[in-house]
Structure to design on (214 residues):
């Protein structure tokens, strides 16, 4: 991605990094909401769930509008490559399946300020914790469906849905951790991901026209 070896080093990320960085942040926000601000367990739970649901909308629209921005020239092509194109060019590069912390921390700070403006200092921590947890879940699922061959039915279905996005219809199936939103917004496309009943391993994926995990 970069001519500089220094910058190139930071473009490769271990899959555990999002959880290591952001799960403690989510836990700290829940502690502040419940213990410091004295909110009830029910309220904190509802706020957490609401924040997570907001993340799913953010994930879907970020993927649809930003990660797949229209390419109209060399400059937008370059931006697209850095934002998401490199992942579509090298989908089996396991070190580029989660967002580098240099980018995610900046986005996290922007979202933190936005939540504070929207909910206030007293009411932002529960929703923000749910949002951050949703991000960790997204990056973990995204890494998993690329780097592993799920054995359980739901995991195989998630992987097939995402592989259709990569290799058959890139303008469909934008929800990685929230594929149900593609039903809501009508972006499942026309290609069937087929049943997950007979996908016990990567060889089955190959036989159905989907690449195996590299």
């Amino acid at each position: 991605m970069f001519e500089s070896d220094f910058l190139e080093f930071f473009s490769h990320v271990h899959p555990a990094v999002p959880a290591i960085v952001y799960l403690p942040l989510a836990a700290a926000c829940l502690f502040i909401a419940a213990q410091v601000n004295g909110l009830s367990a029910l309220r904190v739970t509802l706020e957490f769930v609401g924040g997570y649901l907001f993340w799913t909308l953010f994930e879907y629209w970020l993927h649809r509008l930003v990660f797949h921005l229209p390419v109209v020239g060399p400059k937008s092509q370059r931006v697209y490559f850095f934002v998401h194109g490199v992942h579509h060019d090298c989908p089996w590069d396991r070190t580029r399946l989660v967002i580098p912390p240099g980018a995610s921390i900046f986005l996290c700070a922007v979202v933190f300020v936005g939540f504070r403006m929207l909910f206030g200092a007293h009411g932002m921590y529960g929703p923000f914790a749910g949002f951050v947890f949703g991000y960790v879940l997204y990056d973990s699922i995204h890494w998993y469906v690329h780097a592993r061959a799920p054995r359980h039915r739901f995991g195989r279905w998630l992987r097939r849905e995402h592989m259709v996005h990569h290799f058959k219809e890139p303008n469909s199936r934008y929800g990685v951790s929230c594929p149900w939103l593609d039903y809501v917004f009508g972006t499942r496309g026309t290609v069937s991901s087929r049943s997950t009943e007979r996908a016990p391993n990567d060889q089955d994926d190959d036989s159905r026209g989907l690449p195996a995990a590299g």
About this structure: DSSP finds nine helices and no strands in the chain.
